[in-house]
Amino acid sequence: MSRPASGLEEPLPGLVAVGLGATVSDLGDGMFLGITADRRLFVASAGVRAVIDLGVRREELLATTWRGDGGPIRRQYRVVPGFATLGSLALGRDVRLVRGYRSRAGRWGVTGPRLLIDGAWLRPAEVEALLPPADAPRNAAVARVADVRALYGRMLTDVAYRIENSALFDSSVALTSRFETELAAWSDLSDVTPAEELVRCSAAVQVSFDAARANAETLGIGHLPETARDDARRAAGAARLAANAGTEAERVVAHATVVRILSSLGLYYLPAPTRLQVED
Questions:
Q1: Are residues 18 and 128 in the same domain?
Q2: Parent domain of 125
Q3: What are the b/e assignments for 210-223, b being 16+ CB within 10 Å?
Q4: Is the pLDDT of residue 15 over 60?
Q5: Distance between CA atoms of residues 80 and 89, nearest Å
Q6: How many domains, in total, are found in the chain?
Q7: Which of 40, 100, 111, 182 is the most exposed place for a label (fewest CB within 10 A)?
């Protein structure tokens, strides 16, 4: 499972460093603060809204973006795909970021966005003033690990992916164990760790993750015991059906199928049926 962010990744209470390659859907209920090389600010948040299209209910992701320098339009709203990156969201507003952070909570007011930092609602400029000085190598290292964490987190919540590529979540697999070890080592670093060590450790996290992922996706269902593979395929198919069901009744039936099959398999590295949520 993923580990909590280290002090490096949480420079202020309630504010976590994120890579610009993180997706809009990674924001959840939080708010994104991006900073350019010349310290211009960009803020974004996203929320799901329901739309009825030809009698069929669907959900879409609405992003709200804000440019600290005003620009032609200070605040803007648009529908975006969940896989759109935070960096590309800023580029769509003609803002090129060099680093980014996510607050655990944010809100929009008449005078602009506010981010919740250590129990206080602060303006973006107030948050930026509290951040440590920019350090390109350090920021790049932290962002690299933040991107890995974000991607790994999405994989953890993708039930079908976890079933079909289970070796990535099985610590008895050597390459997976190496990735978990490198991620644990990163979590032990601090803001006084030399930049050279941060760069080296972040590269180790990235390389070990890429290797573990490639190995898992190569093995696929084949990592599972042979007697479990057919049931696992059915569970993965049901998970996709649940995530894309057109009606709530279809979702409930498919979800129940996933829970039943995973309960019967009883493999520790597959999603736990008692905590299972099939994601949209």
A1: yes
A2: 7-132
A3: eebbebbeebebeb
A4: yes
A5: 9
A6: 2
A7: 111
Residues 121 and 166 both lie in one domain = no
Q: For 139, what's the count of Cα atoms within 13 Å in the CB-facing half-sphere?
A: 16
3-state class percentages of the chain: helix first, strand second, coil last, to nearest 5: 50, 25, 30
3-state secondary structure of 18: strand
Query: Taking the alpha carbons of 76, 79, 85, 88 in that order, is the dihedral positive or negative?
Result: negative
Mean pLDDT value across the chain = 89
DSSP-derived letter for residue 110 is: T
The answer to whether residues 117 and 14 belong to one domain is yes
- Within 10 A of 123 (CB to CB), how many other CB atoms are there? 17
Handedness of CA 162, 166, 171, 173 (dihedral sign): negative
Residue 148 lies in a domain: no
User: According to the 3-state scheme, what is the secondary structure of 27-80?
Assistant: HCCCEEEEEECCCCEEEEEEEEEEEEECCEEEEEEEEEEEECCCCCCCEEEEEE
Mind listing the pLDDT tens digit for each residue in 126-145?
A: 999 999 887 888 888 988 89
What lies within 8 Å, CB to CB, of 15 at 6+ separation is 33, 101, 102, 103, 104, 115, 117, 127
pLDDT at 248: 83
Look at the pTM and tell me if it is higher than 0.85. Answer: no
Give CA–CA dist 33/67, Å, rounded. Answer: 10
CA distance 165 to 158: 11
| Distance (Å, whole) CA 85 – CA 99 | 13
172-175: list long-range contacts, CB under 8 Å, 24+ apart: 173/212, 173/215, 173/216, 173/223, 175/208, 175/211, 175/212, 175/215
172 in the same domain as 236: yes
Which residue type is seen at 88?
S
190 and 229 housed in the same domain: yes
**Whether 209 contacts 179, CB under 8 Å:** yes
Cβ–Cβ < 8 Å for 212, 219: no
